[in-house]
């Protein structure tokens, strides 16, 4: 059933029973999430983490010809600095106490008008924040009035920072807005390109995928990040959609399939040998270019295998922290290199991405799994207790693991997709062995020893509603 | 000035308080807000140049409040979080930072703090709602609140040390060179025979907060140091010395020494001996640099963009030592509508720059630069775009500075003076080299430029010729 006509996107919790708090064995987690819905849990101690405002902003700020207004207090809009890009322009309504009492509608109006006059955007997005949500400011009246005056779509992004525990809801909110307000509904005539859906991938990873698509002469459009509004409008006319990380982009692909009959080529993130080959073959099968794809795979794989030593990670105990949909591919790559997975971290599990847990049949069911955004204190607990040698993470702030005795392989800023990704991840492991730098010690740990001797699930409780 | 801000470079009060607390060794910030408020500060800061402290980013404890806490109140969630924070993370002082949400919902945070303090735990709280002010406000208020309460949670006898001084006014992170500057000012004050509570960085910590009451003097090196300094004066009768900025160069060091001597006893001979050494060192290195200064056209015209303290500090040096002309100074501090500070530095600013503007709006800043037509910009990385557009060099001196790591490099004192000249000459040389290669292409007739661009290049050729003879 399409969600397009709903006023707002549902949170991940409501739509897919997403769970962001769990600590236990792989077996216990599989048991926990195997029903028709997943029971919510909470943490009675928590650490700060990204929210859906940050995720939504990140995506929208990468659409080249859109204008962004962050409608909130002074600090909310400073998220725009995070891209380190002097070329990027955005606006903050900078609400003050008076606006929290009398409403900030006038400032919002002024901000949208300014953004329109200065940037001449093809669309404007208004990003919601806690103050506006609590105050219940009337954003829609401002939009209705301004849309009459200006000839561009002005779109409210219903983020508030506290209605979901899962920041990926921010991608869903963006998806919903794109489908509802931008995508061309006249989609009967298909064109010769495929949509490549990316929400969180680094530019390095997208480049690795583009390299594959170029080698196979496939026309593509990367959306919604690194695109322009007209490209987003055209996605309903694509001949197919692939999604680089299904737990982030599947919502968009499924809606495109259902509403606009754009086939969704279901795949997995192209990580590791197996993940990359599967990814390429799925696309090739759909486009009937299997032979060409096989030749490409044979050549790229052959070249790569020469430089990979199979037992690089022999005897190494590894904690892997990544999106659940990437965990099986990372784990298999580590397993193939001789490493042992002793802990898994992932931000959430829901009714869709839970299938990834079943793909982990080659690792022990007793392996500790921490489900949570960040929550490094629980990961520190596992790393210290299990004496992990290496902590592999796609997230920022990974250096804490050094103080728990592990070396850190940070994959966030390097190529991880495609055959190039295999080489890059492999090189990261080689580097970690080479350096073993003295960048910290147990004395630096911010966590109390008493905590690390406790059970890791101490602060995870069943939610009582 | 428009209330809407394009490319806001200032975070909110919560961000300022978080920046402050996380840089005090032994202090643990506990954020009572939705999950992402503190993370925004982390990502913005990570893009800039200062590295990360022990309690930063995803390691910061926080209530990550949800819908139900907004509707029914979040006090009980906060109580649970404080209790468990003390059990999980190491700390000598836990500082609860309250946000927009907890202010709007009206959580009784004081009661939660009192309850835990009654159990003998070192916890203080502060209200730093984002809609109450910017990062500068957050810095001064969290320090004032900690200094008001710390005696109640970290008991110790008052024992005044006649040589101990507190220093405030340099906001961690907001001055890209804060770490080096604190080290340098500590070195200088120790050279005067004093002991220093720096509070932040490798030599600071919670002990400095406890010992603050034992100081003989508090020096506020910007107006943002005034509130915590006044708080100590009110509670412990510690005199306050208000300075508009950190000193740069030996002459300003002497002026600082003189004004300290007006407040407390310092050994004049020791100070003179130290200053003589500093002067000799400065002379020696300036001698080495003078050829580069002359040959690279450093005495140019400029626009300065940055926080008031940085503008005063740098502006005085640029005009007095390098003989520059500052067409305009753009002050980027996020001010409240009702100014609450005693310090009024407008006279200092007037001595430095022809025109003074107060704004952190990127468009307004670019418009100012466009109309002032300087030959060089001193500002943040956000001014790079306009510098590129007008093909003039930019020296990054204010927040945010992208694509760099700055740990102990200073821009104040004597070491800062020298490293600033290094930076300025480096940028000027690189700019000149690029210009030369453009000119070479030009005379070879490669990639013919439009007539406007050509005439601009010719103008620059003339300018370069004047300098190089």
List the helices and strands and how they pair.
The complex is a heterodimer of chains A (465) and B (469).
Chain A: H1 12-16, E1 22-25, H2 26-32, E2 41-43, H3 52-60, E3 66-71, E4 91-92, H4 97-102, H5 105-119, E5 123-128, H6 130-135, H7 139-149, E6 154-157, H8 169-181, E7 194-198, H9 203-215, E8 220-224, H10 229-233, E9 240-243, H11 246-260, H12 272-287, H13 290-305, E10 317-321, H14 327-336, E11 340-346, H15 355-358, E12 368-371, H16 376-386, E13 390-393, E14 407-410, H17 418-435, H18 449-453, E15 460-462
Parallel strand pairs in A: 3-4, 3-5, 5-6, 7-8, 7-9, 10-11, 10-13, 11-12, 13-14
Antiparallel strand pairs in A: 1-12, 2-15
Helix pairs in contact in A: 3-8, 5-7, 8-11, 9-17, 12-13, 12-14, 12-17
Chain B: E1 5-6, H1 13-22, E2 27-32, H2 37-47, H3 67-72, H4 75-88, E3 93-98, H5 100-105, H6 109-117, E4 123-127, H7 135-153, E5 164-168, H8 178-191, E6 195-197, H9 206-211, E7 217-220, H10 226-236, E8 240-242, H11 249-261, H12 268-295, E9 301-306, H13 308-320, E10 325-331, H14 346-352, E11 353-358, H15 362-372, E12 376-379, H16 384-390, E13 394-396, H17 413-443, H18 451-468
Parallel strand pairs in B: 2-3, 3-4, 5-6, 5-7, 7-8, 9-10, 9-12, 10-11, 12-13
What does this structure look like?
The complex is a heterodimer of chains A (465) and B (469). Chain A is α/β, with parallel strands linked by helices. Chain A has 3 domains: 52-163, Nitrogenase molybdenum iron protein domain (Rossmann fold), CATH 3.40.50; 194-302, Rossmann fold; 311-462, Rossmann fold (3-Layer(aba) Sandwich), CATH 3.40.50. Chain A contains 18 helices and 15 strands. In chain A, the strands form 4 sheets. Chain A has a 6-stranded mixed β-sheet, sandwiched between helices. The model of chain A has no long low-confidence stretch (mean pLDDT 95). Chain B has 469 residues and is an alpha/beta fold. Chain B has 3 domains: 13-153, Rossmann fold, CATH 3.40.50; 164-272, Rossmann fold (3-Layer(aba) Sandwich); 280-421, Rossmann fold. Chain B contains 18 helices and 13 strands. In chain B, strand 9, helix 13 and strand 10 (325-331) form a beta-alpha-beta unit. In chain B, helix 1 crosses helix 2 and helix 1 (13-22) packs across helix 7 (135-153). Chain B is globular, with a radius of gyration of 24 Å. Mean pLDDT of chain B is 93; it is low at 457-469. The chains are: A alpha/beta (465), B alpha/beta (469).
